[in-house]
Design a protein that fits this description.
globular, alpha+beta, four-stranded antiparallel sheet, binds flavin mononucleotide
Length: 222
């Protein structure tokens, strides 16, 4: 797939077909994505791929934690957004809830939607990105972000969809329990991956972007 087409067409996929993704394809995607640049070529990313029963165990574990009222304790916490950033978050939620027919006041449907995120959107596989805790967190985040996007773009070439997914790693002890990822590795992000179910309403979402003119300053041009 053409790089421009990939960049333009990638979108978060939150509904998948049950079809398994062959391990060889996932390996090929990771090989391609591992060509990503990193500061000083340190390649701080470490990758864990889960499917089948292990993925099911993590999904169940996440839901049990949620139901127990456990406070999420992610290795990489995200602060609440404010101002214009919060506004964009709300705009996304409005779009998503409208497509999914979720009324803002409907607590049960909202809770069910949240649970879907904790279940990796029922994708048949998930990629978990970790980095050694000895590494500087912010620099490492940057490098892991680059490879994350590369994975999402490369996946398109194989007819696969992805959703970068923070919700599913909110309880890192669950992920550790079923994968053996040690505490010395920071669980930084996960990516749900699988064949998109294009009939799933949320997959029709076209998320908004600010125009380039409002995010860019130009100097030295005519
Ligand atoms: C770091 C990061 C974490 C994300 N975590 C979640 C998540 O937990 N749940 C979710 O539904 N989407 C998640 N997303 C997807 C974003 O909501 C999505 O990328 C954004 O709304 C833009 O939409 P698009 O990916 O369709 O272009 C995450 C994206 C990023 C980059």
């Amino acid at each position: 797939m053409d790089i421009i087409e990939a960049l333009r067409s990638r979108k978060s996929i939150r509904g998948y077909k049950p079809d398994q993704v062959p391990k060889e394809i996932l390996k090929e995607i990771l090989e391609i994505a591992s060509r990503s640049p990193s500061a000083k070529n340190a390649q701080p990313w470490e990758i864990t791929v889960v499917a089948g029963e292990v993925l099911e165990q993590i999904k169940r574990g996440n839901l049990e934690m949620l139901a127990s009222g456990a406070i999420p304790n992610p290795d990489v916490p995200y602060k609440d957004f404010h101002g214009v950033y919060k506004g964009r978050q709300v705009a996304l939620a409005i779009q998503l809830f409208e497509l999914m027919g979720i009324d803002r006041k409907d607590r049960d449907k909202r809770a069910a939607w949240n649970q879907r995120g904790l279940r990796f959107f029922d994708a048949p596989a998930a990629i978990i990105l970790t980095a050694d805790i000895s590494l500087d967190e912010s620099a490492t985040q940057f490098d892991l972000g680059i490879i994350t996007h590369a994975i999402c773009l490369a996946a398109l070439n194989y007819g696969l969809g992805t959703c970068i997914n923070w919700q599913a790693i909110m309880y890192p002890e669950v992920v550790r329990r079923f994968t053996g990822i040690p505490k010395s590795k920071r669980i930084t992000m996960s990516i749900a991956i699988g064949y998109p179910n294009w009939d799933f309403p949320a997959n029709k979402l076209e998320s908004k972007r600010e125009p380039v003119e409002s995010i860019t300053s130009w100097y030295g041009f005519d």
